[in-house]
Amino acid sequence: MEGNRMQPDLEVIKIGPDESFRAFEHGYPYSTVRWHFHPEYEIHHVVTTSGRYFVGDYIGAFEPGNLVLTGPNLPHNWVSKIKSDEIVPLRNRVLQFTDEDIRGIIQVIPELHYFSETLSKSRSGILFSKSTEVTVAPLLEELITASGIRRIELFIGIVGALSRDSEAQLLTSAEYLPDPSGYMSSEMNAVLAYINDNLTEPFSEGDLAEIAGLSRSAFCRSFRRHTGMSMVRYVNRLRINLACHLLMSDEQLKVTEICFAAGFKNLSNFNRQFAARKGMPPSRFRAKVLERITNADGLRRCNQAA
User: pTM of the full predicted structure?
Assistant: First the structure.
């Protein structure tokens, strides 16, 4: 497989409404075991099997213990050397998070700023040392089933270990740059790119079906297979994420203004969709974010005074 010569598929990542990141494990074969990319960061830890892995223009051999961080839109794939009909119950564990979420966490917890350099390097793909893998492996294993504050503790422990690895290696060549616009040649990838570029503008299923060159019914079926959800649900999810960013970053904007800025046509639908995804109305979401920032600032001032 010449992984770096093929056009990668876009993978749609679903991070829960009450989560800052997604952690899961899977076996082999699995739906995402293909040459693909996504806007989210991904920490990928191989538990069993060996084979070849592809990250951007890099091709290397992996074995159990392989620990890699890929940055946004960096194509990747791990191909295990097993029989075609062999089933592996557990092959690897994965941790995924968005740039928006991790930057928000860093803003609230300034000490995590030291992880920013690692995030920048991840755009080339990072292979971590064995000693770091030994530290991270049990944390990642526990994180899969952890809940509440323990999830945050484990997450900080993982990114802390990664940021301290002085032996970490960059994978892609210096000349390699991910080009998501170039990946969008397939019909459905072109549709997802259009949605992303025109998120706050009005468009219909018919408009998107025309871009894909499909009938409306065929488009709806294809879109659901590709993303795991209907077009309306997918678009609402992205618009709510945009609204969250505006609520956190611009205190001067009123909720009504954010409603329309995020692409919603009326306030009642915006409030309903926001509450369904975030479990609270937009005004309460903003208040909780401001409270966390205020508490973090107060704690930092107390520590500085001490």
Answer: 0.63
